[in-house]
Amino acid sequence: MKTINLILLLTIYQTILPIYAVSKSTDTTTIRIVGDRMYPPYEFLDNNNNPIGFVVDLVKAVMDDMGRKYTLELCHFTDAVEAIRNGQADILTGLCYSELRDKDFSFTLPHSYVYPSVICRKNSTIRNLSALDGRNIVLQKGEIMEELLKKHKSTALIHTFNNMEEALRLVNSGKYDAALCGNNPARHIILKNNLKNLEIRNLDIEPQSYCFTTINNNQIIQDLDSSMARLKKNGTYDKIYDKWFGIYKDKDTLLQYNYLIGGLVILLIVILLIVNQLKRRVQREHQKLTSTRKQQKNTLEMLSLAVQAGKMHFSYLELPKKEFYIYQVGEFRKSELSDRTAVRSLYTSR
Question: Bridge partners of 14?
């Protein structure tokens, strides 16, 4: 009987657990979520100050999947972090993971990644972190980039801004040497503000995990991870990702094709130039050969005429001036013959 009861309990548990795992929460409390107002395309404000971006859409999908009410406020990044620290908010939309930060915050699995890059003017020689030493560098205040610089023992002169859009404008104008920030935010800001003087140069640094973050709330962390797993499984996550990052992926692919086509065009031009030079050289050599053969033919004809006219013996030596030696037995004469007239003249004079 006990065995039957145990089997029955296990059956009920296995049946109810999956339903519970995907069922919407009965918790009616509102989750307070904060994020960065200027971190495109992850999260930012549109022209009407409405929150938009990849993480904004992901938050909506996750909260709907969890069946939770929520509020979302985007503000300066440092203010958002402070709101999490002092308990005014429950979730931070995005914070790059590090061992140092892990001491103060709880992180979900990464919902996306940030790719550290240096942004500088096109004529700049900066191409790696070591080249930043002694340079005036701008960063977003509180972002992971400052921690990365310290980790690599950089001696760059750091200037922090709440607004990276303003910071990149100053780099573009020449006030600062470079900026260090994520590849995608920099690209979005450069395109939006038409900062044509700037160039993004990727660094040899591993991508940084960008995660939902809380403080001492493991239950929310588990719920967020479970929800994201379901969204990835049903394809919702991929649709949101492609909406916000697909445009950059397409542009990267187009740029790669442009580089490839450009390289092939240059190679084709070089090949055509080489072929053209070889063709001209062959033509010149052919003309020289034709001219030489013509001269030899004329020479033989003239000498043959001279022999027939004066019953002379002759020798042809390839001297620099093309001199021909025409002589009778016991007599030696030297003459520069250029045509048949000279031969006839010689014959007549004899």
Answer: none
Put residue 190 in one of left, alpha, beta given phi > 0 → left and psi -120 to 50 → alpha.
alpha
DSSP 3-22: HHHHHHHHHHHHHHHHHHHH
Return the closest-CA partner of residue 106 out of 207, 186, 224, 206.
224
Considering its fold, how many domains does the chain have in total? 2
pTM: 0.66
- Which of 84, 21, 56, 55 lies closest to 217, judged by CA? 84
What residues contact 118, with CB distance under 8 A and at least 6 apart?
126, 127, 128, 129, 132, 178, 179, 180, 200, 201, 203
Distance from the Cα of residue 122 to its chain's centroid: 14
Phi and psi for 349 in degrees, rounded to 5? -70, -15
Query: Do 164 and 130 fall into the same domain?
Result: yes
Residue 316: burial class (beta carbons within 10 Å; 0-12, 13-18, 19+): middle
Q: Are 38 and 163 in contact (CB under 8 A)?
A: yes
Per residue in 18-72, pLDDT (tens digit) is: 434 455 656 779 999 999 999 999 999 999 999 999 999 999 999 999 999 999 9
| Beta partners for residue 72, in sequence order | 33
Strands of the sheet with 116-121, listed across from one edge? 157-161, 136-140, 178-182, 116-121, 198-202
Is there a contact between 74 and 121 (Cβ–Cβ < 8 Å)?
no
Peptide bond into 41 cis (omega under 30): yes
Domain that holds residue 46: 31-113+210-248
pLDDT in tens, 285-344: 777 777 777 776 666 666 566 555 554 544 444 444 444 444 444 444 444 444 444 444
Say yes or no: 109 and 216 in one domain: yes
Q: Cβ atoms within 10 A of the Cβ of 317, count? A: 8
**Cα 149 from Cα 298, distance rounded (Å):** 84
CA-to-CA dists, residue 58 to 22, 34, 109, angstroms: 17, 13, 14
Give yes or no: residues 38 and 100 share one domain.
Answer: yes
Residues 127 and 183 in one domain: yes
Q: Strands, DSSP E only, in the chain?
A: 31-36, 38-39, 43-45, 51-52, 70-75, 91-96, 106-107, 112-114, 116-121, 136-140, 157-161, 178-182, 198-202, 208-214, 313-316, 324-327, 333-335
